[in-house]
Structures are given as C-alpha cells and as structure tokens.
C-alpha cells in the first residue's frame, strides 16, 4: 500500500526484485525458539516478516528453531502458534521444525569435515575460553585443529553414536583464530547433550549451534530475506561462510533493531523469572508484555499491528515510549468499544423526590463514534450508585461535581442537587441525598440553566456486582534494565529492585449496569469516564471479572 513508509527493508526487497536477485521471489519466515511465550518484540518481527511476504505476493514460513533440547517444551510450541495466529499472520500449511532437518545438518557437517573445514576438538569449555584470545590479542589454535579428515570423521560419528559424555568434545569450524570477529574464531557447530528433545525424543545426543543451524534452515526452506535483530549483525559473516563453504542456496540475512519499551523488560529469561518468582500471576498476566498478557488485558490485534507500523523498522536501537502502545489501544478501542456505565468505588445516592418502587428506562447511546451501534435502555430508580470520588462534603473551589447544594447532570438522565449526607456512628459517609428535576430528562434544562459536571451512575437495585482489576506499570522506572551509574550501586543491581509493588489493584465491589451482566470472555467496552475494559478469563456466570485495558487519557503525559 502506498501510504506505508518506505523503510530500509522494503527498499532492499524492492531493489532485489528489480535486479532479479531471487528471481523476484519474496519468502520470509518467523523462527522463534520454543523456550518461552512470545512478547510484543516478537510481534514486531511477525508483522515485518509476514507483512513483507504479503505485500510482495510471497511466502511466509512459521518455523520453530527447536535446536536446543534443554529449554524447549511442547507447551511453548502451542502457545506460540496461538499467539502468531492472533497477531494475524497466516502460515497456511507452511509450518516447519528445524529439528526435522537434523539429518541434513549432520550430512552437511560431514561434508565440511571432508573439505578439511571442520574438526573435532577435545578442549573443554574452560580451555576453549582460554584459547579464544581477547579484543586486542588473537586466539590460539586448538591442539586438535590438525586432526586428519579420517580421524575427525570417525570421532564425529562416535559423538553421534553417544560414545562420549556431555561437554567432552565439540565439532568446530576451521576458520581463523586471529579474526577480529570473535564469531569466526573456530566457532562450535555441535556439542554433546544427552537430553530428551520434545520432538525428536532420544534420537540425537549431539545438537547444532544456532549459527550453524540457522543458515541451513533458511537455505533448505529457500528463504530469500532472512530478517533478524541487530545483535546478529556480526554473525552474518559466519552465516555467509557456512553457506558458501557448503555451496548451497544462499539467502540474504538483514538485521533490524529490536523493539524495546519503556517500563518493560522483554527478554524471555526475565519474563520467566517474573512468572516463577511470583511477581505476576502467570505468562498471561495482563501486566506482562507477552502477547498472551496483552490479549488478556484487552489489547486488539489491530491495535498491535497499528503500533508495529507506527514504530517502523530501523537500524538503530531505541527505546519506544510504552505510551505509544497505549495510544494505539485507545485509538482502536475508541472506534469499536460499546459504551457502558460502571461504578468502581460505589457510594449510594438517594433521590428523595423520586417515587419508591418506580423504574424509568432511559435511552443511552452505545458509541458516539459509530451511530450504527445504536442505543440501549438503562434503568433509573430512587437509589443509585455513584463514584465515591464524584462527591465531596467540603469541596475546594474548583470541584464541580456533587457537593452539598451543588447540582450536576447524571449521564443520560437528569439533573440532581445534593441536599444532605448520611453518616454512620464513626462519621463515615454512607449515602448522599439529593433531589432531581424531572424536567431535565435526557440531560438538558428547559429553563436553560447549566451544570458544570456530568457524572456516571448505576441503578442500585439493578446493578450487577463485579470484580474489576486495575493495572499500573510493572516497573517504577523507564529503563528497568539499566544499572545505576554509581559503581557501588551498579555492583549489586538487579532489575527486580525496580518492580512496582503496587501494579495490581483489585476492586471487589464494583457495580455495573445490567447490560454488562451477560458479557462474555474477551468482550471489550468503554466504561464511561473510566477507560476501556474487557472480560477476564476468570469471569464465571454471575461473577463477572473485568480488566482495565487502558485509561481514557494518557495519565502519565505531563
Ligand atoms: P528473547 O531474547 O526476548 O528471549 P529471542 O530473540 O531469543 O527473544 P527467538 O525466539 O529466538 O527470541 O526470536 C524469534 C524471532 O523474533 C527472531 O527472529 C528474533 O530476532 C525476533 N525478536 C525477538 N525479540 C525481538 C524484539 N524485541 N524485537 C524484534 N524482534 C525480536
Ligand atoms: Mg533465542
Ligand atoms: Mg534471546
């Protein structure tokens, strides 16, 4: 589409199509490791990879990079597929698992050995580190570097056959121990891990390293543009070296900046720590930046995609204000969410001159942004609930909501004027009393008198009781990962010290208008004046639970 910005990856693909580099094909992939739940950073990658394929009439592969048995589980595979689908990427029947290529990868490794470009090394991890050298000093060759092809082949086959214990040997590429790029200092291709693989079972006890595996996966699938994040930029020479040495089909790796968000940690390892440490209630806790958390919070895939489009694709690492994500949610929900009335912290309002037992049905518009959504009937009676903070007994000058002697408009209903308050023995306000003006039905006074505030309400006898969960940011500081400058403080720094202990507020006595009683899981609404809310998966028939997705205005903006 012509209104989409021309970012550098769009540009590269356009140039490749023009030059015929991949015969005009565009074929991308999303290659997560199934070692955790996806987060919003992954959504950026999904949106980019899938978007480029769709835009160019190309193909998109969903591929699990399941090459490390120790951290991978079927639970993660299932959750990832659900989340990718939710973001909106459709892989059709193009679902692949890197572990299905293990046999081919193994054959390629033997080819490298035959060429004299790979060797079995007996150094342990510690010794290998010693041989690696430093930024200023070249590394030293392994004493096993000059093994014959025959010996290497025999040892590698015995590695595969399970004759050696974990960590005792590796297969390494023979490149250059003096390369300024550490990744080229004889990188490891295979290590011995006697572990059960979630898909391959106990078939293998040698497992390929990422750099070796990834290019082969891309090559086998005939990917054209292999899009990855910037930290792989200095792995690209290795990606290219492997494919060149094998002489196989060679995709183009292109790096872009990863998504970082303020007030958020993004790495799967840290998210797992938050789950295991009980800082949140699970991977799908609405405070988490996971896709399952965002979904449960009430974020829509449309809002997520608009956000990804908004942050764009660059070569520079930046930290995006999480407020931009919240704005994307507001924009989307404003258009589609029906309006309802709900009172989070109820205070009884008694209308002295409204007849007891009488009920009036009032017309309430469902969404002023979308007339096609029509209106509904809301019951009005002598006893209502209003928000505690909409009343003050001794208000300051600029307080225009309800106060003794002060008149306000009840949304969709009447003007009411406060006459007195009721208190318990301890002096706490238990109810507010008022009179209403029947001539103001619908919200306007025939005599033209004005009020300065409109407040929301719910009829007490018709109200549905609900639990409502309000969320604040999980972290107190914009960059929770950043260590303090002071060296002493930095030495003991851990991002967990920045966790906001008050990020969850649970209100158990909220009152909803009756129409909300039948809402089902995932349904989204605007509660007038309070924000956007959705039904949580903890909701049960007769016991609704709502999450606040986002407030109506950015309360953090100064
Ligand atoms: P993490 O470091 O958060 O655990 P990862 O990079 O290990 O994530 P993978 O499962 O390997 O996660 O990633 C799958 C794809 O998603 C990769 O192509 C990776 O580059 C991309 N990706 C991961 N995190 C981000 C991010 N924050 N922004 C953009 N793309 C990302
Ligand atoms: Mg990874
Ligand atoms: Mg990672």
Automatic annotation (TrEMBL):
UniProt subcellular location: Cytoplasm
Pfam family membership, one: tRNA-synt_1c_C
Sequence ranges assigned to domain tRNA synthetases class I (E and Q) anti-codon binding in this UniProt record: 454-536
GO biological process: glutaminyl-tRNA aminoacylation; glutamyl-tRNA aminoacylation
Recorded catalytic activity of this chain's protein: tRNA(Gln) + L-glutamine + ATP = L-glutaminyl-tRNA(Gln) + AMP + diphosphate
Quaternary state and interactors: Monomer.
Name of the featured protein: Glutamine--tRNA ligase
